[in-house]
Specification:
Strand order of the largest sheet: 3-2-6-5
Strand content: 5-15%
Shape: elongated
Largest sheet: 4 strands, mixed
Length: 601
């Protein structure tokens, strides 16, 4: 299924002129060997950017095929200096051993044979005539090797008039035939599972995923999408593509399309250890972009679509256009398919609308709802650096961002490990903010797939009688009383007791309730309006706790701890909204007293 969808991409890209020739991929070229018209001489030009220059390296689509083993074959026209000029690899001491020198000569001989093979396949091509004369006349051996060139530097051949030889149509044909012969070495033919036609079948996938296309914390290298080179890996002990019959045309086109998607910014999303590419069968609006750059307009459209058609099946009937997303990780030289999504666009639009509806949080100061980018949510699971005022990069759990992405695209539950980890970070960092509150809403939702089931409210919910939620609200009121009575205090009860209160609230809330009497007494003397408002709120909070069957809980479960944090933060957001509203009213009425009757109502 995946290879079929990729070949569809290849067909559209080829029609638009975006697909490179078969078995070609971008390569950085450091040196250009320009051959004269008669093939008697050649000049080696250094095309490397000068040191300190901001110029980009020269890059062209060039012949490429995955090669490995002790005797890797050459590429046509464009290859390393080890193949083209017999530059030997040097050891740690900077010198080349006799073995390395002989290996360089062997590789140059194979490269020469490949050039001659192309020249013989195009007898009427004047460029081929020049190359044949140059090679048979020992021209490669006469090219002076400059200082500073290394065995790994890429050298490309160019004609006297500036024509890149590897971009000739005859070179395209010859290179495709060469790779086809190498990769179809088994001689097997059969039914290709991708196109459904009979043809010669591949031993291995001819092209790999380009190094760096998949993020990794280790050594970047080319990777194979399908690689079965040990009997234990294959079904029935079969190696390579025996159980995955793919013809040469489909295999090359699928990988060319995948590399094209991986190189296109508008069709990929890179994480810390994975990359996701997406495409559609027919033109559609860019839904994926809204995950990391949610705009009010785009999110409003998604939420409107969700409310208009909350049932995913109904959404599918309304918009059957297919949407695909592939997430890849890396394990040494093998690509790991972490996730594969194949759903209608209407259903994906429904899922993304639910994603924003389920995690949006209320900002009391701005009196608006915050919808957070996916990268920000993932970042908030990491460690908070109070001195720097930001989250520490790469401190989030490995793979969690990809799990959140999967939940967003499939309307699935939040990762099971999210909630305990997030609570541990909140307690350690003593920080609760919008992204962490949004993650709590997602983690506490009982069933995100059921459109008839609701999760936690995005703002203060006066009807919520969850014990943890009520405890969190009461703690926020107690902290507000302290701040109102002692506005210049450096360390609040939140700084001292938040972690303990979210675990064992009974003793903490009881003691703080008793201590709040002194603060209320001061407020009654200095700010009577504030006193009456906060005293009423405190009475309501503890009255709600008193109605619980077992009173204030002694210990909270993991879910109840999350409800505690959510109740605490939503109570503070509601108080902020009231203060912001009062401040706005005060600015519009100079006669408003400094001590309002209810500053947080």
């Amino acid at each position: 299924m995946l290879l079929q969808r990729l070949t569809e991409v290849a067909g559209r890209a080829e029609a638009d002129g975006e697909l490179p020739p078969a078995y070609y991929r971008p390569k950085k070229i450091q040196w250009v060997l320009r051959i004269s018209a008669d093939g008697t001489t050649a000049r080696l030009d250094d095309r490397r950017p000068a040191k300190g220059s901001k110029d980009k390296p020269l890059q062209r689509e060039a012949p490429y095929a995955y090669r490995c083993g002790t005797r890797p074959p050459p590429n046509l026209m464009v290859d390393t200096a080890q193949y083209v000029l017999a530059v030997a690899k040097t050891g740690p001491d900077g010198t080349a051993s006799e073995t390395a020198t002989q290996e360089a000569l062997r590789r140059q001989a194979e490269y020469t044979d490949l050039l001659l093979s192309w020249a013989q396949s195009a007898p009427d091509d004047p460029y081929a005539t020049s190359v044949r004369a140059f090679v048979t006349g020992g021209g490669l051996d006469r090219v002076p090797v400059p200082e500073g060139i290394t065995a790994a530097d890429t050298v490309a051949l160019m004609a006297h008039d500036g024509t890149w030889l590897h971009e000739l149509p005859t070179a395209h044909t010859a290179w495709a035939a060469t790779v086809r012969a190498r990769k179809s070495g088994s001689g097997f033919s059969g039914l290709c599972l991708v196109c459904g036609e009979h043809g010669d079948l591949l031993d291995t996938i001819p092209e790999s995923i380009k190094s760096g296309a998949i993020p990794t914390s280790g050594l970047g290298r080319d990777s194979q999408l399908v690689s079965i080179n040990a009997a234990a890996q294959g079904r029935g002990g079969s190696l390579q593509l025996v159980n995955t019959p793919v013809c040469e045309r489909c295999g090359s086109r699928a990988m060319a399309a995948l590399n094209l998607l991986l190189a296109t910014n508008t069709h990929r999303r890179r994480g810390s250890d994975a990359v996701t590419v997406w495409w559609t069968k027919e033109p559609a609006d860019d839904l994926f972009e809204s995950l990391d750059t949610p705009t009010e307009e785009h999110v409003a459209k998604l939420l409107d679509a969700l409310h208009t058609c909350p049932d995913p099946v109904a959404a599918e009937r309304l918009d059957p256009t297919a949407y695909y997303a592939l997430t890849l990780g890396l394990n040494n030289a093998r690509a790991v398919v972490s996730d594969w999504l194949d759903i209608p666009v209407g259903r994906l639009r429904n899922h993304l609308g639910a994603w924003f509806a389920h995690h949006q949080v209320y900002d009391g100061w701005e009196d608006t709802y915050r919808r957070l980018p996916l990268w920000h949510l993932a970042l908030a699971t990491g460690r908070w650096d109070a001195k720097a005022g930001r989250y520490v990069a790469r401190s989030a759990p490995k793979g969690l961002e990809a799990e959140l992405l999967h939940a967003a695209l499939t309307r699935g539950p939040a990762p099971a490990r999210l909630l305990p980890h997030l609570l541990q970070r909140i307690r350690a960092d003593r920080r609760v903010d919008h992204p962490r509150t949004a993650l709590l809403r997602l983690a506490l939702h009982p069933n995100r797939k059921d459109h008839q089931v609701t999760g936690p409210a995005p703002q203060l919910d006066g009807q919520n009688n969850e014990p943890g939620y009520l405890c969190g609200r009461a703690f926020a009121v107690l902290e507000a009383i302290q701040r109102a009575a002692l506005p210049d205090i450096n360390t609040t009860i939140g700084d001292k007791y938040f972690g303990t209160a979210m675990t064992a609230p009974a003793s903490v809330l009881t003691n703080l309730h008793a201590g709040a009497k002194g603060h209320l007494k001061r407020l009654r003397r200095d700010k009577r309006g504030t006193h009456f408002a906060l005293d009423a709120r405190l009475s309501d909070a503890f009255a709600a706790l008193a109605e619980l069957d077992k009173g204030i809980p002694t210990l909270l479960t993991t879910d109840q701890k999350a409800w505690f944090v959510l109740g605490y933060e939503q109570q503070r957001a509601a108080d902020n909204a009231a203060r912001a509203a009062h401040k706005k009213a005060q600015e519009g009425d100079d006669d408003t007293p400094d001590d309002p009757e209810d500053p947080a109502a």
